[in-house]
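We recall that each integer encodes one residue's backbone shape. We quote one record:
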Amino acid sequence: MPLKRTFFAAAAAFAALMASAGPAWVHPHVFAEARLDVVLTPDHQHVKSLRHLWRFDELFSSTVLMQFDKNSDLKLDDAELKDVADTIFSSLAEYDYFQLVTVDGKDVRMKAPSQIMTNFDNDQLIVLFESEPATPIKLSGTIDFGVYDPTFYTAIDFTEDANMTVDGLPSNCTQHVVRPDPDTAIAQNQKTLTDAFFNDPTGNDLSKIFATKLELQCKP
């Protein structure tokens, strides 16, 4: 089934049109710096929630301002910011809010966040939300957390390893940030990527192989 355009893809297309920059479908046209905090349960044995913060580039942020500034006062008031948040909330539901969570290589389903909050800081759109796993994630085996856009329209990345954190990790666990090399990832997944493209050239979720991840390794 073809992927529907997300809020970010639609806004990126609008920005490309306004700038006469050509097609917006070849590579990411929206960029954001991210922070991810993994919150553990009080007993430090399970993952309680993920706290996300995304700071978008000024070009995309200005596009959002143009689209949602209903009273044309060149700023977004509380009602307009809520409109942005509600639009993002509904647009990203189909994509699990761009979250990548796996245990021993198997996807973990996440609950929808109770709300998404938005703000503007230094002319940049800020998106914040917190989500919980549908079932508790025990700290055992290999657990990966990340952010990726399966439509390739949005590049959300962690510019520093320190922007992916988990406090209170028990002594039987270690953590490190994994940054896949694009060329290596493509070479290792060439057949899968080719098959996926020909089966559904409109999009797939294999962009996750390029995603920066916080990986926990926990011994029994």
